[in-house]
Every structure is written in C-alpha cells, then in structure tokens.
Design a protein that fits this description.
By secondary structure, the chain is mainly α. The chain has eight helices and three strands; from the N terminus they run ααβααβααβαα. α5 (82-89) crosses α6. It is globular. InterPro entries: DUF742 (IPR007995). This is DUF742 domain-containing protein. It holds the Pfam family DUF742.
Length: 146
C-alpha cells in the first residue's frame, strides 16, 4: 500500500512472496561500505540470528527510505532475524547487516542480539541449517543432503 502499512508486493497476510533476486550489485546498495554505523563502533558484525523489529519512527519514515531500507523496515513489523530478512528479500546477508546497522543508528529498527551461550548450542545450529535447507533455491529446488 502507498500508506506504508504493507510491504510492496505483499499479500493479504502481509507476507511478501520471494521473487527473483535483485540485479543491483550489493556494493551499490551499501555505497561500497562493508560495515554499518554500529559495527564501525563495536568492530563486530551483528550475528545472523539477531532479531530486528521496526520502531514507530521507522514505520513513519517508510516513504522516505531507499527501496531496500523500506523493505527491511516493512518486513520487521514482527521480529525477524537478519538471516530471515536476507532470504525473504533476496539480499546478500552482509547488505542486510549494513543496512540494519544504519537503520538502528537512525532509530528506525530495534535490534535484539540473542544470548551468545545459546547460539553455540549444537541443536540450535542444526535447526538453523535445516531451516536454511528448507528454503528453495532460485529454481525452486530444495537441498536435501548434508
């Protein structure tokens, strides 16, 4: 919708279908940067399991954001991990990290980094791998082997 309540191309349930990958090179989307505003300060990238949630300021600013930033904030009406956003929007993982850092610095995203002790649990990693394998590739084919 033009009022910013539903991501571009989303159905009635608010879920945006995965479409063809963007033809825009990742370094163009991030203006050649490999680290976002917050990562430059900490020296560490956000983990892929970091949860992103749109803030009220972010939802109000949707019409003023770049295409990719708009889509990230719009998809984060409900908590989403960096990995989920990258897969859903078909953006490079590091592009989402850089843009998420920028959006956090601007107050448009709230970022929740999970407890690092839990992320090293082998069962959690196995579930993440299984979830990633359940995502079809660009031809719609699922990976079915280790």
């Amino acid at each position: 919708m033009a009022d910013g309540r539903t991501p571009r191309g989303a159905g009635e349930d608010g879920v945006t279908p995965v479409g063809p990958a963007s033809a825009v090179r990742p370094f163009l989307v991030t203006a050649g940067r490999v680290a976002g505003a917050g990562e430059a300060a900490t020296g560490r990238p956000m983990p892929v399991e970091t949860q992103l949630v749109a803030t009220a300021a972010g939802l109000e600013a949707l019409d003023r954001l770049s295409f990719e930033q708009h889509d990230i904030v719009a998809a984060c009406r409900q908590p989403q991990s960096i990995a989920e956003i990258a897969a859903r929007l078909r953006l490079h993982l590091n592009v989402v990290r850089v843009l998420a850092e920028d959006l956090r610095a601007a107050g448009q995203l709230s970022v929740h980094v999970p407890d690092s002790g839990v992320t090293h649990d082998a069962s959690v990693l196995r579930r993440v791998i299984d979830g990633l394998r359940a995502i079809p590739d660009s031809r719609g084919v699922l990976r079915d082997s280790d």
